[in-house]
Design goal:
Blueprint (H helix, E strand, L loop, with lengths): L1 H14 L5 H8 L9 H19 L11 E5 L3 H26 L16 H27 L1 E5 L2 E9 L2 E8 L3 E7 L3 H6 L1 E8 L5 E8 L1 H19 L2
Antiparallel strand pairs: 1-2, 2-3, 3-4, 5-6, 6-7
Helix pairs in contact: 1-2, 1-3, 4-5
Length: about 230
Amino acid sequence: MGAVYRLRFLGDLYACCYLSLVEVFSCVVGRLPRDCGAPLYIVRTYGIRAFGHHQRMKEFELEPGEHVVLEARKHWFLFLAELLPYAILAVIPFALPKLLALVPPLASYATIFDYHTTLARAILGVWLLIMWTSAWGACTKYFLNVWVLTSQRIVDIKQCGFFSREVSSLFLSRVQDVTTEVIGVLPSLLNIGTIKVQSAGEDVEFIMHGIPRPEHMRDLILKYVSVETKSTGV
């Protein structure tokens, strides 16, 4: 069992980029049971994590000794709230004829939305395509907009459009103050808030809106701010 725990520990170091795959194999070969399949175990268990780490590093490069602490996106409730208008607008063309039929003065207009003609179907198709594209844009922004807290900085990855992305970062050694705001009944129930990070010598705040568990994120930032301040001697 000790060999298995050692393998898991080495795999964690590899996933965090503290060790290369060659260094892991050099530590594993000859020290584990022959039937445990060490190389295959490492590839299966940590291949996906390493791939995700490689994909994230395309946005920004980690400094030597730097590691990712936490990734945060907007709360899922805000994501559903953004999709709700598109879902309602997509259903309206199908529900409108039945709604008009319930009102006698407007019942004659219900035949306009029968979609039996080619033109009506084409208009309906264009309308649904617009709604689908808009909803897909909201999904893209939700999954690609991410705040990354590393051991040395805060990185804000913002998807401005389908083919436009903005990446900004703030080093923890320059952080002066971190505040959280939770305003409203629903945000209080769902624990959704805003984090404002004030940097030293600048009037611009690093603001993160719609963060789930903002107090947890704030505590992590302050924790690594103190660690980074001690390491840099600032």
